[in-house]
Amino acid sequence: GDAIARYAGRGMDGAAFKRTSYAARFEKDNLPGAWDKLLANVYYNDADHLMDNYTLRTPNPASSMPMPMAANVDRRTTGGRIASEWRWQDIAIVAGIDAQDSRHRSRSGMGRNTYRQQPWSTDARFENLGAFSELTLGEGTAQRWVGGLRVDRAEVTDERRSAGMMGMPNPTAGQRRRENLGSGFVRIERDLAPSLTWYAGIGHSERMPDYWELFSPDRGPMGAVNAFAAIQPEKTTQLDLGLQYRSDRLNAWVSAYAGRLQDYILFTYVDGGMMGSMTRANNIDARIAGAEAGAEFSLARQWKLGGTLAYAWGENRSDGTALPQMPPLEARLSASWEGQRWSVGALARAVAHQHRVADNQGNVVARDLGPSAGFATLALNTGYRFSDALQVSAGIDNLFDRAYSEHLNLAGSADFGFPADPVRINEPGRTAWMKVNYRY
Q1: Which of 6, 199, 348, 365 is 20–30 Å from 60 (CA)?
Q2: Which of 289, 201, 293, 290 is nearest to 244 (CA)?
Q3: Taking a C-beta distance cutoff of 8 angstroms, is the pair 165, 205 a contact?
Q4: How many CB atoms lie within 10 A of CB 323?
């Protein structure tokens, strides 16, 4: 596949997103004895991504990139997985191994399409080998215990010979990082009645920093030569609780979580002068918590009403401040009618203001831009089914043409008239759309 994307919050646009994927899967069941199933799969993915400032826009002479330029990155990922399933009465076991190998390379050029004449330069290699198992006790009964373990051996190699816009020698060129990562969980599920189930679980996971967390920051933790040398794997320990109700006319649920994060990877954005903003990556300790509730009710065979309420909270325990990039309280109400041919729906969103922010801190994708205001929107849609294969849908989003922006947002680029001080990008106003679905 391929695509293009114009970014209001970036100095470059996505001029190409070429994807090539191949996969093969093997599955064998009805095996002898307690051995129930054998599964295996392999895959190959290649992502060729082109970013430039001239295909979908005109270079801005007053920006940090006044001349036409392009950056072309390519990532090839191969891997596979093999697993077996065993069953004895109400006991089920799944165990297996998986492996992944990933290579990242790039090239760039000043001027239109000059990048095509530049050679590719590999800057990173990732390898991961993992083993996992999951045990279920009481499968198919009113009370079930589920537990799992996973161990990973992760390796990352820094292939960059130079770093930064000035092409300075890379102090970690050719170095390899190896990490042993462990994860596990245990959960209990109990049916209080045929339609009512509660569950509780605790889990721990360890995550190797990804490419963008190791290689994209301009600076690493204080005293480190760069992020690759010092950013540690992220560790999360989390407790989950929930209650689910299911009947012919009503589905309802409530869930909550609380977690502790060690070595959470935090990005701090600082002013880089003519070079634009720069980023520093650090590890911090944090706490998170949240809850969600929802219900869907069938008034009649064709009518449905639904609603959800979600809240998330986070704290930077290292600095005693709010954890950035936390969504505010949000409620959704929906109504739908579906006949043999026609369908109609409505969705109302109400989002509260968010005052718990950490200015200019966030992750590799975005940062907090100060407190945000609440808003409410309404969307309508309808559809007509011509046959089992063909359906046409149309709708209007933001029916009342409200001016609003999401809290989790990007700073607008000066190339599109946004001011130098970061401001949020507004969502589209009243928008009409149409979609055609055809199955064959």
Answers
A1: 365
A2: 293
A3: no
A4: 25
Residue 344 CA to chain centroid, in angstroms?
Answer: 30
Q: Output Rg (C-alpha) for the chain, integer angstroms.
A: 25
Which residues face 202 on adjacent strands?
186, 239
What b-and-e string marks burial along 217-235, b requiring 16 or more CB atoms within 10 Å of the CB?
bbbbbeebebbbebbbbbb
Give dist(CA 314, CA 210) in Å, integer: 22
Q: How many domains is the chain built from?
A: 1
Q: Is 239 helix (H, G, I), strand (E, B) or coil?
A: strand
Would you say residue 157 lies in a domain?
A: yes
Q: How far apart are CA 198 and CA 72, in angstroms?
A: 49
Residue type, 429: G
Each residue's pLDDT tens digit, 211-267: 999 999 999 999 999 999 999 999 999 999 999 999 999 999 999 999 999 999 999
Sign of CA dihedral 391, 392, 398, 400: negative
Six token digits for residue 280: 């520093």
**How many Å apart are CA 432 and CA 343, to the nearest integer?**
17
Q: Strand, helix or coil at 224?
A: coil
Tokens 């060690």, residue located: 262
Range of the domain at 252: 142-440
Please write the tens of the pLDDT for every residue from 31-82. 988 999 999 999 999 999 999 999 999 988 877 788 999 999 999 999 999 9
Tell me how far apart the alpha carbons of residues 74 and 101 are, in angstroms, rounded to a whole number: 14
Q: Is the dihedral of CA 326, 13, 127, 131 positive or negative?
A: positive
Residue identified by tokens 């709708």 is 395
Which CATH number belongs to the domain containing residue 391 in this structure? 2.40.170.20
d(CA 382, CA 394): 6
| b/e sequence 274-295, b meaning 16+ C-beta within 10 Å | eeeeebbbbbbebebebbbbee
What is the β-pairing status of strands 250-271 and 234-246?
Answer: antiparallel
| Within-domain flag for 371 | yes
Residue 230 host element (H or E): helix 227-230
pTM of the model: 0.90
Distance CA 380, CA 357 (A): 32
